[in-house]
Amino acid sequence: MQEQVSTGTAGGQQVSSLREMMLAQMTEKGLAELTREGYVRGVLGLVEYCGGRKPEAISVAEARAYIAWLKGSGASATFRSHASAGIRFLYETTLGRVWQPVSPLRQRMIEDMELRGFTAKTQLSYVRAVEGLARFHNRNPQTLSDQDIRQYFVHLKCERKLARPTITIALCGIKFLYESTLRRDFTVTGVPRPKREHKLPVVLSREEVHAILSKVTDPRHRACLSLVYACGLRLGEGCRVKVTDIDRARGVLHVHAAKGMKDRYVPLPPAVLPLMEACWRIHRNPIWVFPSVGRGGLHGAVATSPVPLGTVQQVFRAALAVSGVRKHVSVHSLRHSYATHLLEDGVNLRLIQSWLGHNSPAVTAVYTHLTEQATSAAAQQVGRLMASVVTSTGSLLRENATAGTAGQV
């Protein structure tokens, strides 16, 4: 990369045409700046490992050998991860080469998932789950016995001690392979679905929401996070808002292909519109309200992808750190806070369920336990009960003390 003829400069440093092409493709796909820099460093490491040869002259086998060498080289886990992903991006996207041929079994599984309308994210999670099983046994999944499958889940739960959601995704992906693609009875493996945990979400007060959002200085990020709270959106829904999704006349936002591939309309508060307008005027992208602006914020007008979710998460964490709020929260906590605050203001639970996109009212009903009125009323009842108990106990102790004193006289 470094040896190629320069086509431009960036901060006085010559940049090769291949690096420029790779950076442009990463920007178009919405990768965060830190991720792009990590990918480039990984490719430069490959070039150095191969004696300074040009990347297009390095074979896929050599690149794979470099990634394997990194594992024992003492390089950090972050660098290894960036190097692996960056080199694969270079070969697959920039150079157009086949990095990893798709096996017939994987292709069939992907086709089965496509036929059932699974999202790309779900497909990727399921394929990774099966890859983990194959790596653990170092064998083709078709050749594994029911005991082999059970042993893998014992490893995940008892040895690696993974969280319930991670094990559940692995179970769903592997179960899909055996039941839908291989037509095998998965129940004989004896692997149970992990028990659902019933945890209450952490909710921010109105003052805490304001304290966090006020620390976000970039107009695009502040408008995006404000919209997430004002409409109770999931992070991905907020980042992917298009210009055509805003219905000013009706005062609603059209949320497309949300969780479960469902559309819905949510009220769009007028107070958040000026923030969105100010954000859009900066880039004037014809598609996205919050586009991926790229390095230096120069590509917003022509971006073909929305702002990366990771970028917004980083901004939220940075704002939280300086806001003075000490709760362990994430961007999704804004959605929980939205629902709780609406309940506190007397909005009907059925409406909130519809705006959040929940299938069952039981899911939305969890917020009834989090409202300030409910907790304060319960606290008052507990206070009155404990006050009467403590008072009667105190009187009994005083009476016993008096009787004991009288017996000693």
Oligomer designation: single chain
N- to C-terminal distance: 100 Å
Strand order of the largest sheet: 3-4-5
In the CATH hierarchy, the third-tier topology of the largest domain is known as hpI Integrase, Chain A
Q: What share of residues is helical?
A: 55-70%
SS elements, strand count: 5
Sum up the structure in keywords.
409 residues; mainly alpha; DNA polymerase, domain 1; hpI Integrase, Chain A; 3 domains; two-stranded antiparallel ribbon; 5 strands; 57% helix; globular; disordered N terminus
TL;DR of this structure?
The chain contains 17 helices and five strands. The protein has 409 residues and is mostly helical. It has three domains: 6-94, Tyrosine recombinase, N-terminal domain (DNA polymerase, domain 1, Orthogonal Bundle); 104-189, Tyrosine recombinase, N-terminal domain (DNA polymerase, domain 1); 206-369, hpI Integrase, Chain A.
Question: Could you explain the architecture of this structure?
Answer:
The chain is mainly α. It has three domains: 6-94, Tyrosine recombinase, N-terminal domain (DNA polymerase, domain 1), CATH 1.10.150; 104-189, Orthogonal Bundle (DNA polymerase, domain 1), CATH 1.10.150; 206-369, Orthogonal Bundle (hpI Integrase, Chain A), CATH 1.10.443.10. 57% of the residues lie in helices and 5% in strands. The chain has 17 helices and five strands. It has helices at residues 17-28, 33-49, 60-71, 77-94, 104-115, 120-137, 146-159, 164-181, 206-213, 219-231, 235-239, 273-283, 309-323, 332-344, 349-356, 361-364, 372-408; strands at 6-10, 13-16, 246-247, 252-255, 264-267. Strands 3-4-5 form a three-stranded antiparallel beta sheet. It has a two-stranded antiparallel sheet with strand order 1-2. β1 (6-10) and β2 (13-16) form a beta hairpin. α10 packs across α14. The longest helix is centred in the C-terminal third of the chain and has 37 residues, at 372-408.
